[in-house]
């Protein structure tokens, strides 16, 4: 199928985010992690100290006053340097678009220098230090996260509107959007490959090549993410959450949570509530 392509603006126009956690922390001199592939997106805002970070095959210094965007599904390593401590704001979040593809296709750098007069500090302060937790605050936290992402996109040194995402990634993005909109429904490879207008075998190979995992594993992961979000931020019953996420029954959802997180959905909800109260 011929595709006219998708501009960066079109790609992110339907962006939705779910904040998992945000914090302000001083890291010890021995802080490091290596060859880690996160399932969520991460943003670091370095306030003091220095280190190194590697995203894919790109190695960057961690420097004060710089903002770093680490897309889900990318191989990452990081550490402090010269026995220094690092102080940083950071947040983890899920999104309905694949930022890994966005950075690759539009050649977007993973870091930017923050201007002296900016809203990023204020957004992170509200994300981390606000103690009030009600419906309005949950919405404002999402808005603050979107503002940080918007600041990053607005300041990356590329001619954003001149870049075009073309087939086959355009078709894969259509599949990803379909998955996120229909997590409560049954899905299979034949159905998803038809949406991408690709042969099932080629579709599976292409999907894994760009997203780092097979299509149905991605669906399963997104169902778990949605269940996590509903447990944390809704009052829906566990049965309702099982139905809304495509697990269809409590037993299936419970087995999945115990397998992936080592606790039941009910316990996960209780621990999430306690964590929100502390932060």
Architecture overview:
The protein is α+β, with helices and mostly antiparallel strands and 279 residues long. Helices cover 46% and strands 22% of the residues. The protein is built from 11 helices and 11 strands. Helix 3 packs antiparallel against helix 4. The radius of gyration is 19 Å and the shape is globular. The relative contact order is 0.13.
Question: Quick recap of the structure?
Answer:
This protein has helices at residues 8-12, 99-105, 120-129, 135-155, 169-181, 189-196, 200-211, 215-233, 238-244, 250-261, 265-278; strands at residues 6-7, 17-27, 32-36, 41-48, 51-55, 58-62, 66-70, 76-80, 86-95, 111-113, 164-165.
Helix-strand pattern: EHEEEEEEEEHEHHEHHHHHHH
What spatial form do the alpha-carbon principal axes imply? globular
The residue fraction in helices comes out at 40-55%
Strand order of the largest sheet: 2-9-4-7-10
Gap between N and C termini, in Å? 49 Å
Largest sheet: 5 strands, antiparallel
Q: From the alpha-carbon coordinates, what is the Rg to the nearest angstrom? A: 19 Å
Give the structural class.
Answer: alpha+beta
Number of strands: 11
Taking all residues together, what is the mean pLDDT?
A: 85
Quick tags:
279 residues, alpha+beta, 5-stranded antiparallel sheet, 11 helices, globular, disordered N terminus
């Amino acid at each position: 199928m011929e595709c006219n392509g998708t501009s960066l603006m079109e790609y992110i126009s339907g962006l939705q985010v779910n904040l998992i956690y945000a914090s302000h922390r001083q890291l010890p001199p021995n802080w490091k992690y290596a060859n880690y592939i996160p399932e969520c997106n991460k943003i670091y805002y370095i306030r003091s100290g220095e280190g190194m970070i590697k995203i894919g095959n790109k190695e960057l210094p961690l420097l004060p006053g710089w903002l770093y965007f680490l897309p889900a599904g990318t191989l990452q390593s990081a550490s402090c340097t010269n026995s220094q401590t690092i102080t940083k704001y950071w947040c983890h979040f899920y999104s309905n678009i694949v930022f890994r593809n966005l950075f690759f296709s539009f050649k977007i750098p993973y870091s930017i220098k923050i201007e002296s007069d900016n809203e990023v500090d204020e957004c992170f302060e509200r994300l981390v230090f606000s103690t009030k937790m009600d419906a309005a605050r949950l919405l404002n936290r999402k808005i603050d996260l979107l503002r940080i992402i918007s600041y990053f996109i607005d300041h990356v040194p590329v001619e954003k509107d001149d870049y075009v995402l073309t087939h086959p990634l355009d078709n894969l993005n259509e599949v990803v959007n379909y998955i996120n909109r229909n997590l409560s429904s049954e899905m299979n490879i034949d159905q998803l490959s038809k949406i991408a207008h690709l042969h099932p075998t080629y579709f599976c190979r292409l999907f894994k090549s760009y997203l780092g995992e097979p299509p149905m594993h991605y669906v399963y992961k997104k169902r778990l993410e949605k269940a996590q979000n509903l447990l944390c931020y809704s009052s829906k019953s566990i049965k309702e959450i099982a139905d809304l996420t495509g697990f269809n029954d409590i037993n299936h959802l419970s087995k999945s949570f115990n397998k992936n997180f080592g606790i039941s959905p009910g316990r996960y909800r209780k621990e999430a509530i306690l964590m929100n109260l502390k932060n």
